[in-house]
Amino acid sequence: xxxxxxxxxxxxxxxxxxxxxxxxxxxxxxxxxxxxxxxxxxxxxxxxxxxxxxxxxxxxxxxxxxxxxxxxxxxxxxxxxxxxxxxxxxxxxxxxxxxxxxxxxxxxxxxxxxxxxxxxxxxxxxxxxxxxxxxxxxxxxxxxxxxxxxxxxxxxxxxxxxxxxxxxxxxxxxxxxxxxxxxxxxxxxxxxxxxxxxxxxxxxxxxxxxxxxxxxxxxxxxxxxxxxxxxxxxxxxxxxxxxxxxxxxxxxxxxxxxxxxxxxxxxxxxxxxxxxxxxxxxxxxxxxxxxxxxxxxxxxxxxxxxxxxxxxxxxxxxxxxxxxxxxxxxxxxxxxxxxxxxxxxxxxxxxxxxxxxxxxxxxxxxxxxxxxxxxxxxxxxxxxxxxxxxxxxxxxxxxxxxxxxxxxxxxxxxxxxxxxxxxxxxxxxxxxxxxxx
Length: 437
What we know:
By secondary structure, the chain is of the alpha+beta class. It is built from 11 helices and 17 strands.
């Protein structure tokens, strides 16, 4: 082991000994050449970092790196694009060059227990970055590996698997199916959901045509000087807990004026966070505010996407209104906007979005925007490499100031933690709104 990392924490001087990275190619020869990425993949070429924590059992953690590394080589035979690298096609779009070189794999050791690290990370979430391998010195997304893996052993016998994957390769559902397949391979089981790798079923139409406004791409003027607020104050990243009782109160509140007949937990919580964040950021009443969130399009495409579709089958949908309307109206108003955004997602809408990207090469504008990404229903926690299910699974950090992440909370996963970052003054207002629910 080498490369000792000192985190400089005042409460406890943690050290992580990290070995040199080695490449893990697929165990067998795999297909070479160019691998097509569709337009839904092009828009989200950002690195998503996730960690999977496992407690000690009678097996200990000595064999964990080897078991996980060997299983990775085997599962990459099925998921061979993850063993390649990103490049650009002749028309300047992202594609994968299936070189078969394999992702970097790193072994590490921490001089603390898993419980100690999680305790410190509650106050300083950036500590969890130590569990994920990031290649130093890269200058662009094309130089950054599609996937990296790091296995960290704690002194208590627990261990962590840290994964950094480019979002252009997989949405949450696909990524969960990949890591669960990896776990099945480690346990010498057949894949319960073999991947379907052909993304050409989501190609743009020829010729492309846009049939909807596609307001997810709307560029909004920041008349409330929100960006200046973010620049002026310390940004506080927090996890705001909504237990089952509070979630039920939110749903009841959304239905209390009888304008709606039903409401899901996601709809009520998304509407509440959108409304309360707009209030906390002190948006001008005339500020246009946009809510973006992903809807799984797999069953909404016609024909439906095949089982095991590996890629981005999630489609962004949008709710839009003035901040004044959002704040002056009851919660049911925002919930109805969320419900209408979900109803918007049809095959025609999704094909129109794909064609819009083909014509405009645009990414959604984030001015005046809240982007919600919900992990509360994804099965990352079930990944079992032979040590049982995880004791904790989640992303490392929040991907941006405009993003809120919903993670399951509690022993039965019936609660939700909302992770987001806001200026310190806004956090206080947001917390007061939660208390009043």
